[in-house]
């Protein structure tokens, strides 16, 4: 890579910085690895050859991050101990073109509070971990995938649907998923939810079965897997890992890119600032409902401090996930989480704030 090309990638004023997050990720494979022993960036960061190489590794170490960002980190005031916001660079909107997009980016209620998280060194590294020749491509019905194993899902325009459909000041319930569905045309940025024209997954089938058990007289099983209605009603459907690929080997890499740290930061913001403003009298004490399916989701809540929060959250835990293999083996069915969530909302905030779990409209984001 030439000196000019390398500087363009990291220079905040470069045209490269006007690209979307997906396009930034794809720069890695479009350029050869840099070879200069020393390159100086205009904003004061100095990268030697070892540090440059680490940027292209799948999992940068904390030492790599410290070497790259220590000039800023040393001048940044510390945040509360244990927070993902311990260090933050200055937020640069030109780098986060997708996040700040008014149509498909983060909802304004989220963006303001997530700027410190987006400015974390680890999140900067995250943007350079993913690459593909056709990131974010939207397939038409019946169209044959051209890059079946290498594409990253969901498409860029769907990545932040969880924030746009459930603004920070409208949250009542949080449900954590693991990662998006890894088939073309299914994932659309909401945990567990899928596009209406795709085949219903086994996971959605298990969720439908639990709804049938909890609401035997009112639930009508839909012929689609969309949960968009829940998101619009105040249910934050958040994945721990926000992207994935069809290639099984690549799927594991996505879980190691640092999305879990991003999700942890999102959950911290939910704990501190989240909640339906029409139902909460005091966000410092009034709590939300967290529906936790599986040990991985439980770990994320614990790391984010939800379990030790001063707010009176209602945490509904089940060791099983709605994936068919886990649901039958570990006891997902008959957990009554939907009923219990509404019981909490009714008791604390009134019946008008309950979620209509049976309302599953056939709509995409």
TrEMBL record:
Q: Which residues form the Uracil-DNA glycosylase-like domain?
A: 164-345
Q: Does the keyword DNA damage apply?
A: yes
A GO term, aspect molecular function: uracil DNA N-glycosylase activity
Q: Does the keyword DNA repair apply?
A: yes
Q: Which GO terms describe its biological process?
A: base-excision repair, AP site formation via deaminated base removal
First and last residue of the signal peptide: none
Which protein, by its recorded name, is this?
Uracil-DNA glycosylase-like domain-containing protein
């Amino acid at each position: 890579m030439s000196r000019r090309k390398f500087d363009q990638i990291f220079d905040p004023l470069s045209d490269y910085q006007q690209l979307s997050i997906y396009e930034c990720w794809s720069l890695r494979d479009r350029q050869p690895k840099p070879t200069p022993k020393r390159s100086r960036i205009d904003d004061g960061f100095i990268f030697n050859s070892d540090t440059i190489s680490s940027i292209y590794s799948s999992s940068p170490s904390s030492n790599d991050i410290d070497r790259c960002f220590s000039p800023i980190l040393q001048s940044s005031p510390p945040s509360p101990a244990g927070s993902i916001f311990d260090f933050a660079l200055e937020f640069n909107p030109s780098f986060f073109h997708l996040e700040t997009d008014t149509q498909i980016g983060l909802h304004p209620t989220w963006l303001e509070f997530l700027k410190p998280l987006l400015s974390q060194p680890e999140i900067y590294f995250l943007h350079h971990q993913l690459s593909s020749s056709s990131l974010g491509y939207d397939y038409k019905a019946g169209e044959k995938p051209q890059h079946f194993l290498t594409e990253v899902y969901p498409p860029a325009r769907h990545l932040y649907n969880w924030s746009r459909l459930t603004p920070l000041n409208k949250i009542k319930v949080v449900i954590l998923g693991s990662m998006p569905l890894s088939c073309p045309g299914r994932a659309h940025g909401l945990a567990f939810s899928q596009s209406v024209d795709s085949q219903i997954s086994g996971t959605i089938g298990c969720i439908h079965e639990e709804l049938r058990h909890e609401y035997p007289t009112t639930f009508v099983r839909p012929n689609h897997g969309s949960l968009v209605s829940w998101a619009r009603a105040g249910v934050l459907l958040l994945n721990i890992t926000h992207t994935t690929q069809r290639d099984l080997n690549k799927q594991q890499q996505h879980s190691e890119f640092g999305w879990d740290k991003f999700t942890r930061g999102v959950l911290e913001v939910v704990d501190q600032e989240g909640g339906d403003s029409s139902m909460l009298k005091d966000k410092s004490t009034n709590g939300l409902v967290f529906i936790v399916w599986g040990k991985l989701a439980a770990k994320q809540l614990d790391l984010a401090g939800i379990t030790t929060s001063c707010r009176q959250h209602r945490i509904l835990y089940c060791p099983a996930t709605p994936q068919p293999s886990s649901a039958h083996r570990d006891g997902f069915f008959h957990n009554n989480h939907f009923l219990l969530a509404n019981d909490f909302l009714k008791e604390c905030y009134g019946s008008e704030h309950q979620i209509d779990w049976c309302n599953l409209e056939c709509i995409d984001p």
